[in-house]
Design a protein that fits this description.
This protein is mainly α. It has helices at residues 10-23, 82-95, 115-133, 136-139, 143-149, 156-161, 168-178, 190-245, 266-282, 285-345, 348-351, 355-466; strands spanning 45-57, 60-71, 74-81. 69% of the residues lie in helices and 7% in strands. Residues 433-462 have a biased composition (Low complexity).
Length: 469
Amino acid sequence: MDQQSEPNTQEQIINQKEIQQQISPQTDIQQEAIKEIEYPDFQISIQIEDAIVKDVGFGQKFTVYLIKGSDNQGSFEIYRRYNDFYELRELLVKKWPGCYIPPIPEKALASGNDNETVQIRKRLMEVFLIAITQLPYIYYSEDFQQQFLRSNSPDIAKVYQQQKTITTSEIIDRLKIAFPKLDVRDQSNSEYMLAITTFSGQLRKSLAILKTYIEQANLVAQQRRILQDEKMNLFNASLPFYEKIILNEYVYGKEQQLVLSNPQNQEDYKKLLEDIKESNKKINSINYLTDMFRYELKDAESMQQTLNYRDQIIIIRAKQEQKMREDQAELAKMTAKQQTLTTITNSAFNKSKDASQIKVEQRISEGQQEIDRLSNLYNIITAIIATKEIEKYRKARVNHYHKFLKTIQQSETKLYQIENQFLEKVIQHSQNQLQSSKQEQKLEQQQQINQEQHQQQQQQELPDQEQPK
């Protein structure tokens, strides 16, 4: 596909469409022909490589996350703060109602720069970015592609905040472009309503259970950290101290017979123990399990947010209908007053409408159009949720579960490999010392045997020497 001959972003497509509507306005917004977008068939790579806490002085700190990756437009490398992620998602929720928007970690009550919070954010915001790559209508939008990934602006959050409020018509256009083959039905369709109602009940149940799982996983992760610290203390302090204080009394100065406190081995052990210590900081598979439950909870809340927005459209439409009824009542009073004046004065001037009456009629017309758009939007969102998002959400849950299990297995394997290197070295040195001790023992036994034989031989030779000549 020639990218220069077609719009690169959905915003450009919408702008072109608005220009066409000004030239040839359409009276029925449901009859617009939408051309399906062909997104690039390219393997996207994206990750958060590092998190850096910066000190700007006067006790003020902030964290930046280094995002690296590549797509059809080339490689990218950018630093973004948590607030950039937050404002991006807030904007996407407003621009894509009814669509699944991946969650990010919640805002921290404190500064959010402590190591545990930074690491949780780093892991879960990377999951957010990977999830965005699976939503091409968002990934290739200007908000994400040009502003978030490739903009040099240091304050993207402010750019997002200053964007103008999106209209109902713009939202409808975006959704129709993203879902051109959507089966939109009237809001009274029982099939769609049943699917959404059933799913909503399952979602509420999941939210309650996931909160319990997070508490349990956090407790296990805490115990795991305590266990790892105790293991480090055992091999780094307790056993070497035991060798020096207790065993040293029995080796009679032969320190080479010791293992962990043996001067010849200490450099190797020191390096391995440091590797284990660093791995313990970075790897705790229970943390990944906690991440899974935490992300599942945020994901469920994101879907609930989508369902809630659909319900809010009903409320917004009801308010609009109430406002229109008030305008109609006001117009009726104006018309009655006008007719009375016309009867009394029989004046042609009084028969004409005054400016205020025209203004009210215009409000009524615009209000009716907005009500129709809101009804259309409600039907579109209902169709998106019932036919697209629910099924996609269910599949994603299973896929995420399998992915997290694989991550846990890999992290456990990596941690045990590092610990095994240390233990194998300890065993090797211990076996060498045992073998050396056995050889020394055999040598001592042989020397003792030789000495006894030599003494016996001397005793046998002594009577012959004492015999008289």
